[in-house]
Amino acid sequence: MLPRKRYSASLKHCPQLADKAMASKIEKFEAIIDHLCDELDRGNHFFQIAKALQRAYENNQLLDAPYFFAGTYDACLRESILSLAKLTIADKKSITIEYLLDTAFYTPTIFQPTTLEELSAVITQHRKHLGELRPLIESVREQRDRVIAHLDRKHINSPALILSSSVNMTELGQCFETLLRMVNLYRGYYNGSEFSFGLIESGVQDDIDYLLTLMKSAYK
């Protein structure tokens, strides 16, 4: 159950202090949303590049400049995994989706006229969604800790374990979309706005098609 609106005696008898306290809460919430949307946008952008390159590779379209495209794919996939790790892996000092849910829980008054009951139900549902994403989040954690940020000794002692923890591309893309919907719900409750990934997916595909056309012409 969400906490009811409570003010200290000083705030109750001083509207200016109450307004200042509310303004501070709103400013904090806006900063959280902005940072999360920025990281979602960055992570999805890298993911869309990696996905488009993987599709082109599977269609035998990357026969020219293979080293460049392999390096680009690997770098973009790693960056998208790191972004997802930033967004989902709980840390007391980090801005994560979990932190957004906690902020919404403890400052429900910034979402007026949304009812406490409605907001409470949404937060509960989103915590459930995060629980359902736990297997993917743990896979992301494994990749970050054992492959990207550190070179785990299991690469030598148990290489099969490292390979088994690789991230599923389809699940990775779905996760970015799920987190975006979560963030947008609170954004909508707050000011009615919505953040979108826009034309990134189609734009990336158009760019890759353009590069492949140029390369095909150059290697004739």
Write up this protein:
With 220 residues, the protein is mainly α. 75% of the residues lie in helices and 0% in strands. The protein has ten helices and no strands. Helix 2 (15-58) runs parallel beside helix 10.
Question: What descriptors fit this protein?
Answer:
single chain; mainly alpha; 10 helices; elongated; 75% helix; 220 residues
Brief rundown of the structure:
This protein is mainly alpha-helical and 220 residues long.
Average pLDDT rating: 82
- The helix count comes to 10
Oligomeric state of the chains in view: single chain
Compute the separation of the termini in Å. 67 Å
Backbone CA Rg: 22 Å
Major sheet details = none
Q: Number of folding domains?
A: 1
Q: Which structural category fits the helices and strands?
A: mainly alpha
Fraction in helix: over 70%
Q: Write down how many β-strands occur, each being a DSSP E stretch of 2 or more residues.
A: 0
Estimated share of beta-strand residues: under 5%
Parts with pLDDT < 50 across at least 5 consecutive residues: 4-13, 152-165
Shape: elongated
Q: Please provide the ordered H/E string of secondary-structure elements.
A: HHHHHHHHHH
